[in-house]
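INFO  loader      accepted 1 record
INFO  loader      residues=359
INFO  predictor   begin
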Amino acid sequence: MPTPLQAPAHLRTRMHTLLATLVLLTVPVLALPMALAQSTAAPLDLETAMTRAEAASPDVQTAQRDLDAALRERDRVEADPTSLRVALLDARHAADAATEALRNARQAARANAASAFETVLEAEFDVRIAEADLAIRRIETDATRIRQQAGAATQTDVARAEDAQASAERDLRDAQDAAALARDRLAVALGQEGDLPPLAGATDAPVLPSLEATLARLDENAPLAAARRAVTRSEANLDAVNVPFTTPQTQIDAARDAVANAETRANDLATSLTLTLQQAYNAVTAAAGRLDGARDALTTARDDLQVAQVRFDAGSIAELDVQRADLALLRAQANETRAVHALAAALRSLESTLLGATP
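INFO  predictor   done
INFO  writer      dumping tokens
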């Protein structure tokens, strides 16, 4: 029996063709599990994104190292039996300040990641809107050409419809580019290598705290805490120098003045911070009001789509009118999502102001 190499030329050709066909069929089968794994990747939710951004933030990592160093120095000073009270306070205050700096770095990293995450969701909505709008423009262009051929429209009408379609195509390209850029920025914030998984959709609106509960947390503000630590240190310094017949009176008076000045700065900062928080809270309530308006508009758009569908079923309007109502609903959904994100951003700004964190 001849071997494959000894077979006639026409048989060898058929064998080679069969082998090539098997390879072409095998490669997609081998690649199928990978494609399925990518398509079934778990969506990335906002909380997970913020946690990953916090872990990847260089500012958080630097603040953590600074805190570790401050804690080591505090432990060293506390273990030294010769340490004076002011030196002990300085070391403890440095550790407290480093703790607040780490907390604020985490807050800033999470806020930036949330903003980038929400930008991606909004950009993806813009792509869907642009795709729906382009589909309508294409139908309108085709319909205008048909009417022009039937003598019911002019060449100018056709040109106008074609221009509208071309504009919609540009809008779609711009929206797709913006969405890709937004995903790249989010990936950088998360320290993500490779493509991002799909994002979980918009969440419910966050819960608003009361103004009273917000103002009750003034002690968490880092600059105010630092000002109050300065008062404590100046008082300790006054106690250290206020020794009759040992310290010159001028030095004692200067220490008393330092205490008074530190108290004045702390009180002024508390008053200013209260006003700033009230303004930030007003921005939160305004964003909540805009969300209510967006939800009312969304309800109206849903009703309009239902009416359009009923009228289309009854034969009183064209399918294109239903598509326009569907596009209006999509835009209303996008506006509601933006309003939810705006409220969340206002709350993050309020929290950053309260903590003294850089947004």
